[in-house]
User: Fold this.
Amino acid sequence: MDERSLDPASGLARACRRLASARALEDIVAILRETAREIAGSDGIAVVLREGDASFYAAEDAIEPLWRGRRFPLTSCISGHAMLDDATIVVPDIESDPRVPLALYRLTSMRSLVMVPIGSPEPVAALGAYWCASVIPDDATVHRLEELARQAAAAVARTRPVKS
Assistant:
């Protein structure tokens, strides 16, 4: 059965099972890249890793190229704000949110987004879902993305060496 043929809730359950057995950060990033877009019902997703004071766009699955492979200061991108504030950000219209770097977004067709931090109280990553239309994602969609982020955070914690 094709994973993309599943309904979002079933896709979330399958992604959570996969994350439970992930043993490396690369596996976690790949699982998120392969599953998050369908779970969100979005036109694109990005998996963003925190690297010191920067956001690194590690992976994406989108209808067009976004920012994979690029780094931005945490304070100048929406993923960085989500990580710094440890809070989900919903932006129905990128033109009306001052945290969104408009010059970068105007190069794409993306107009709405949800950015969810991964890990709390100190997020180590973020998961972004993007839409080409100005939409307000429903509560169920935001909840699914937050649950996926919680499961990814647990997987990341399992891959980290124990500090003594």
About this structure: The mean pLDDT is 93.
